Amino acid sequence: MALDLEQFMDGLRRRNPGESEFHQAVEEVANDLIPYINDNRRYDRMQILERLTEPDRIIIFRVCWEDDEGNVRTNRGYRVQHNNAIGPYKGGIRFHKSVNQSILKFLAFEQTFKNSLTGLPMGGGKGGSDFNPKGKSEREIMRFCQAFMTELQRHIGPNTDVPAGDIGVGAREVSYMFGQYKRIANEFTGTITGKGLAFGGSLIRTEATGYGAVYMLEDMVKHRGQSLEGRVATVSGSGNVATHAAEKLVVLGAKVVTLSDSGGFVYDKDGFTQEKIDWVKELKDVRRGRIKEYADEFGAEFHEGQRPWGVECDFALPCATQNELNAEEARTLVSNGCFAVSEGANMPSTLDAIHVFQDAKLAYAPSKAANAGGVAVSGLEMTQNSMRLSWSKDELNERLRGIMGEIHNNCVEYGKGEGDHVDYVKGANIAGFIKVADAVIAYGVI
Ligand code: NDP
Ligand code: 2IT
Fold first, then answer.
1. Which is deepest, 30, 120, 216, 221, by most CB within 10 Å?
2. Ligand nearest the Cα atom of residue 375
3. Statement: the pTM of the whole predicted model exceeds 0.70
């Protein structure tokens, strides 16, 4: 009997009650994979979709730490080890008050397909905590990271599971966690990526996700015989991914007019320059301030509590968080003439928004393809750590560019539609699936 999407999703919802983000991520993938599996029956006989929607394991632990007033604080830590069929579990750590099992399961599930798309030998995982870094002192951050790693360290290792950064986890947090890992495990190995350059980090890793999302955009736009030059882009977020996407867009000749945070968005009609982007990086990384301050500093507009999707643009790059772009906003983008969307964040568009983009035949790159540049350079950091050497910036940038180009080609191969239209969602889902599924089949029933 052929697999049926509704039946499959009913079962998944029953087995994973209340995990709406996980349901959403699986539905997006299953929508393309079920017809493919029905044409390639061995995947069904081996129950591949059922197996790939059940994480290998989920580790949940208490994280106890002391704040600056001497109060004992308790948070919950997680690591979802989703699938290691093609390499060690690999994926970021998120510290945000919204973190729960559903969010980390969706992220780990997506990561498995994304990592496969990079062409590098990495499985999928994700971890994090509901710890809220906002307003915490430097020493509280350090104590939390150390307490988190004190438990996590027994579950990870350079050939087992290699974490990295994500929302709320940047160079500072990775350094504290790596320091604690090194101390307890008594080994100096590449067990975390995104490290500082002085202790095994890779050049380009900080920039890689944002740059990669723009390389993907560039390839999609070129595929339609156009270029980024002189075009207007809206970007959401103002963290690692958003600022580096904005930076690369500017270098390639586009005009970036928005950035945002959870308080609202800024609209700079003159466009962000490198100098202005550097100011935002300093605001967010060093002063830990709010994007609203940009409007005061540069005389731009601030739209409190709003998202930037109502601003007219040719390209939209959602780079903040999941479900930050809904169907109504997608329709506004389309009617304003936006013709390409590249997702720097993970699952920023709702399922209905994706359908709007697909129906309008936009060049729409889903996150698992568009933001794979970050984990790709993490994979290159692992390689450099294993060889105990460092590649140059040029070498790494060339490899990143090459990997993003390959991802684009793979999406075209499996997602080609009529004329120059490409269904990048379908292309990414099928291309990411095949390698993992074939490995799972090769191992037999385990
Ligand atoms: P950062 O912590 O550096 O920045 C996050 C940005 O998103 C901030 O501007 C933050 O605003 C905003 N944001 C976070 N949560 C919300 C929310 N609930 N509502 C509105 N705005 C929000 O994270 P990154 O830039 O690293 O990550 C951004 C996205 O990119 C995430 O989806 C992440 O999973 C994805 N990603 C990151 C990669 C990486 O290498 N770092 C790799 C691939 C994907 P505020 O400060 O107000 O919270
Ligand atoms: O979502 C992601 O791909 C990341 N946060 C980066 C993961 C990594 O291991 O570099």
1. 216
2. 2
3. yes
